[in-house]
Amino acid sequence: MIRTRFAPSPTGYVHIGSLRTALFAFLFARHNNGKVILRVEDTDRTRLVEGAVDNLLKVMKRVGINFDEGFYLDNQNQVKERGEAGPYLQSQRLQLYQKHALELIEKGRAYYCFCSEQRLEELRKEQAALKKPPMYDRHCRNLAKEQIAEETERCRKEGRNPVIRFSMPQEGQTVLHDLIYGDITYENKILDDQVILKSDGFPTYHLAVVIDDHYMQISHVIRGEEWLPSAPKHVLLYQAFDWNAPAHAHFPLILNPDKSKLSKRQGDVAVEDFLARGYLPEALVNFVAFLGWNPKTEQEIFSMEDLIKQFDLAKINKAAAIFDINKLDWINSLYIRAKSDSELTDLLIPYWEEAIGTHTIRPFKDNKEYLEAIASLEKDRLKKLSEIGERTRYFFMEPEYAPNLLVWKKSTARETKEKLLKLYDHLNKLDTNTLIYKENLEKDLKNFILQNQFDNGSILWPLRTAMTGLDKSPGPFEVTSTLVSGLGKGEILKRLQKAINKLA
Length: 504
Ligand code: GLU
Hints:
Elements: E1 3-6, H1 16-31, E2 35-38, H2 52-63, E3 69-73, E4 79-82, H3 94-106, E5 110-113, H4 117-129, H5 145-158, E6 163-166, E7 173-178, E8 182-187, E9 195-197, H6 205-215, E10 220-224, H7 231-241, E11 247-251, E12 254-255, H8 266-269, H9 271-276, H10 281-289, H11 304-310, E13 321-322, H12 325-337, H13 341-356, H14 358-365, H15 369-378, H16 388-392, H17 413-429, H18 432-436, H19 438-452, H20 456-468, H21 476-487, H22 489-502
Parallel strand pairs: 1-2, 2-3, 10-11, 12-13
Antiparallel strand pairs: 3-4, 5-6, 6-9, 7-8
The structure holds glutamic acid.
């Protein structure tokens, strides 16, 4: 049975790299009809954030990742826990870790370390001065029975507990068989005698991760390359416990296009923020799947179902993945385009409300035709939903713009004004049926231009500008007819009049 896990620390937001880890573990499990487990690694008590699990699960739900064991959201969106191997919160498994740390002491594979913070600090300074890597000097590794008793007593008096350290082998090599990177050999002598149990009785990551992966019967540890340096320590811990280690698959780092490390600044990399900016969950998943994985075909658009079908660890690259926001924009625009006008409108409404005001949008919400018409006009141009406010503000309120924007490049202000006056009279005479249908309006205005022997630009440019106040927008006919459909003929005449006045 394939069993993978996603084991985040509850930091309060979901890093884009974390989404990738969850996605790959999920895809691998689903592809192989296995199980995926959500375990929360909260042993670093300094990094705890209230509500982090709740937030994490909401994000996972939006992007379509679910877990078979561990934490999940019930129908009321309450965080619940399920599965035989729980608890799935590490802070509720302390006794298990403590028991196994003691077992390692008995086996001679771990030892109490009584060194004070102060001594360790001095040691670090000495090593830094000698330009040596910081490493515990194994001061407590071979204490005699009496010394241990004395030190225990001393610690008790000082009111502190010893920690437990793992005895790393001092010679030989440890090999990690990684499914992506192949066999990696580590020299044991460079491995630090890692603390496995802290003085507060909490395990460190290394001990907890090994014990949990074992008891949760994880078959494949799937995680980012940043954990590769930890892997030999884990392999040695499995050996010390006489347990079989799960298979490991580490996937490449995510870098910026300039090859610098992806920022850790929450605002740049939080999945929540990408969603809030109007990247569709499906697009984000599609994009993130390609951060290190590649189907090795031409196909670039993948639904979750496609991904589950095609995901294969053999197609994970060793080279770093490049986080290219332009590619995300492109994928997102394709997903936006694939929505129906009605679906897209529902997605856009919160963005309109935010950019333009709930009050202004309210009248259009019940009968959504106007909003749908606008959404349809912008559909092929939108890269993300949050752009909609800026792009379509003029559909809800009169635009502000500089008078010279009205003047077509081959024309003058005076000429423009004369033409707009003629246009005003002409539009004023048209019935709503001609104005409201783009095709009718287009036919009519082309006729009008022909009869007056105007050139297209000198009329259509100022018309479009008067309606939108923008130098770029959808075309003059669709903008004008859509405006009439939503705000009435009076509105377009008002805007034309305002343009004429500007040219005075
Ligand atoms: N808790 C670790 C993290 O925050 C898990 C690393 C692992 O998957 O072993 O990513």
